[in-house]
Design a protein that fits this description.
Elements: H1 2-7, H2 39-56, E1 61-66, H3 68-79, E2 84-90, H4 106-117, H5 145-157, H6 168-187, E3 192-197, H7 205-215, E4 225-227, H8 239-260
Parallel strand pairs: 1-2, 2-3, 3-4
Helix pairs in contact: 2-3, 3-6, 4-6, 6-7
Length: 261
């Protein structure tokens, strides 16, 4: 993705969220996705921009965020309303898909209870370390067998990248942010392009659509742009989905550059 963006003249700055990628983990068990306060994510990113990005460029900034990063991005857009020209959210976690039995919200009700009794336990009652043996056919991330295998090979070669399921504390924090989204949408001043995966199982598509409505004219084209049949990782998908998504993103960002001039 960074290669493709750079090829189009986009300078890319990126930071691994705390507890993910090559950043330190929050718990002794490195496979647990954990956070005690969701605002830590946006604080980290804003500090990164202030101390690293701004030290290297005076160019106008655009924001590209995916999945959980989408929720972090929304917080950043409200905390620093004039920092970015435009924002692109791909498969954003406006609300997690915390489905347990009947609805996307079931897991949030459980998280509210278990956050107090076992905050650092895996959400869902069973251990969920990084799944070394998950078959391609069972994955919810991408329909590209080639990219899926590249991802698996990389994580096998660099085990420090591996991450399992979230804790009750992480889920409770994600659910709290989801409840704040209608109010946050009213505070956003930045134009936003929202891209949605049609075959989504990780986050809530209905929450994305509601957020776009709440943004009003700031939501590009007045609606979420859905990619029918695409799984969660839009920019790690098969070329038929990924190329179109990338084209939309670049056209949107280039339009903001033209408007700037």
């Amino acid at each position: 993705l960074y290669f493709d963006l750079a090829a189009q003249g986009v300078a890319v700055f990126s930071l691994d969220h705390r507890g993910q990628g090559l950043s330190p983990r929050e718990l002794e068990d490195p496979h647990k996705g954990h956070i005690t306060d969701f605002t830590l994510y946006s604080q980290d990113q804003l500090q990164f921009i202030a101390k690293v990005v701004k030290a290297q460029t005076n160019l106008p900034l655009d924001l590209l965020a995916h999945s959980m990063g989408g929720a972090v991005a929304v917080q950043m857009l409200t905390q620093q309303p004039t920092l970015f020209r435009r924002a692109v959210l791909t498969s954003p976690m406006i609300a997690p898909n915390a489905k347990v039995a009947f609805s996307e919200q079931d897991g949030c009700y459980l998280a509210a209870a278990f956050e107090w009794t076992c905050p650092d336990c895996y959400a869902g009652f069973v251990s969920q370390p990084y799944p070394h043996d998950q078959a391609f056919a069972d994955n919810i991330l991408t329909s590209s067998k080639t990219r899926y295998q590249l991802f698996r090979d990389l994580y096998q070669q660099q085990p420090q990248l591996q991450l399992g399921g979230p804790t009750w504390s992480w889920l409770a924090q994600a659910c709290d942010v989801a409840q704040q989204m209608p109010e946050l949408a009213r505070q956003v001043k930045t134009p936003v392009l929202m891209l949605q995966s049609g075959a989504e199982h990780a986050v809530s598509n209905s929450a994305q659509q509601q957020f776009c409505q709440d943004l009003g004219p700031l939501c590009a084209e007045g609606k979420v742009q859905q990619f029918a049949g695409a799984k969660h990782e839009l920019l790690f998908e098969s070329d038929s989905h990924r190329d179109l998504a990338l084209q939309k993103i670049l056209a949107y960002l280039q339009a903001s550059a033209v408007e700037q001039h």
